[in-house]
Amino acid sequence: TPIMDVAIVGSGLGGWANNALAVIVGNEVRLVNASDPNTPITGSYHTYSTPYDLFTDGTKLYISDAVGLHIVDATSFTKPSDRGWVAASPAATLYKFPISAAGQVAYMSQIGVGVTIVDTGAKGGPKVIGTYADTGAMGIAVYGTMLYVANGDTTWDVVDTGIVRDLTVTDNDAGIHYIAPGKTFKVNASINNLGNITVQANQHIRVTAYLSIDGTLDSSDYQLSPVTISNTGMEPETSLAKTLSLKAASSVLEGFYYIILKLDNGGAADNNLTNNLWISPTATVQVMKGKPAIVMTMDADDDSGVVGDNVTNITPVSFTGTTRADCTVTLKRGSTVLGVTTSAADGSFSFANIALVSGTNKLSVTAVDKAGNKGTLSQKVILDTAVSTSSLALDRSTDSGKRGDFLTNIPAITLTGKTEKNSNVTLLVNGVEVATALASTKGAFSFTNIVLADGANNVTVHITDAAGNTLDVAKTITLDQAATVPTLILSPASDAGTPGDNITNLSKVVLTGTAEPGAKIYLKVLKNGKYVNVKSTTAAADGTFTFAKVSLKSGDNTFGAFTTDLAGNLADVTGLVINYNTWL
């Protein structure tokens, strides 16, 4: 099979100590040992569609065939897909092409079409960046920005492409540049190997930066502010270093971009750069817009009571949350920093063992992303370790007798009380749960139609506040539905004559009796057929009561008494007749 072309690749390839050669043999491109070209390096060949030409810069191997330009990693001779390829358009046989020494720009000649210019270092794979139409184009050569095209006749064309073949720009900052629209960010760049572009002493070259999604400049890309790079030395320079201060407009969308630089002379005759100079992407930018949103919650295990209400009786506590990825997240109470962390790739973050103070803790969370955007969240967390003072009382409507004495003659009562807002309240009567209620936002609660048994009833409300603290308030409520009938007699000391006959010669006498302790006793006398109240008193602790200096009229005097006990029950006695006789 005829050997069509050969190129020196590099030393040490495939374990061979000497230089290796790339050769076209039929439809194959093989690598061989230069000192023994008849011995191929094992496995080092690929098949193409009628390969025609080879070129190498020592690290990449460029192969033209009937379908396009293939770019291969020559140091390992991996498959072409590892570097990419550019299709010939329209499909036609490629003839010859030279390539820049730095492997940045490739020029391929296509019979019947012209010269296609390819940026081999473009992000995402090789990109066509220009064409020169010349249907007679065959052999080509490049020097600096000048393209020389042999037409297959007696002439050649000389074209200034404005493209420096071996220009390199190095981003001296490691990693991605994170920027916020409207804010300035810096890229430390070194522009090297200007080649035949010379910046004179005390003159400058202008750099315009663009943000490109795909690494190829087009109308959808965003232009940044131009930066002037000056040569402040005394001699011409072909390499310059500059910190580029760039600023993206607020209209830039979020996402990842490549920085593309365009160099020109800024309209001044400072250098021999006559056309625009395009440089492949040299840095990666992530545009981050807006304030990072923040969500933070207390861990469920620490949120006693109702989960999610930020009221707890536990300290210290832990928090988890989410925000934008790779943010610096700071937790504060007032001006006191409680914790600092960095959100993970999924935006999650956490704070553990955060000590709370009793009462309301006013917390703030800030998240600052890598572009400097800052989000904030304010949150209140209440540490409540005990139920506050609570009360329980009979409602006025069912508190007969003296108010507040928990003594009533009404068997179905209403209870009212007050505690912490939104507390759960359970009512037990004589040890049996009979009702539940939720305290209002003001802490009020009530129970209606609570049936009591006669006598003493043990009534308890069990309170659980929002933080999970508990408190029992117990009362004894007595149901008394009947008053004891009182007794009323003439005191023996006032009963002159025969004892017990209720006949006396005293005009003022003493009457005594018994009733329920604490009951109100009213003395009444019969006048004109009706009883009229004349005096009142209260029964002593032993139930006795006395009316002194009760006036009598001559003859029979009829007395009675009625009582109201502490529960409000009524009872009376009548028919005590006392005869006042001065002749006794």
Number of H/I helices: 0
- Tell me the total number of β-strands: 47
N/C terminus separation = 170 Å
Quote the beta fraction: over 45%
Overall number of domains: 5
Low-confidence stretches: 10-18, 95-103, 232-237, 269-278
Rg calc: 53 Å
| Fourth CATH level, the homologous superfamily of the largest domain | YVTN repeat-like/Quinoprotein amine dehydrogenase
- Strand count, sense and closure of the main sheet? 6 strands, mixed
CATH topology of the largest domain: Methylamine Dehydrogenase, Chain H
Question: What is the helix fraction of residues, given as a range?
Answer: under 10%
Describe the 3D structure.
With 584 residues, this protein is mainly beta. The protein folds into five domains: 3-160, Methylamine Dehydrogenase, Chain H (7 Propeller); 168-287, Immunoglobulin-like (Sandwich), CATH 2.60.40; 295-383, Sandwich (Immunoglobulin-like); 391-479, Immunoglobulins (Immunoglobulin-like, Sandwich), CATH 2.60.40; 487-580, Immunoglobulin-like (Sandwich), CATH 2.60.40. Helix content is 0%, strand content 53%. Strands 16, 18, 19, 20, 22 and 23 form a six-stranded mixed beta sheet that branches. A hairpin with a 2-residue loop joins strand 3 and strand 4. It is rod-shaped and about 175 Å long. The N and C termini lie far apart (170 Å). Mean pLDDT is 78; it is low at 10-18, 95-103, 232-237 and 269-278.
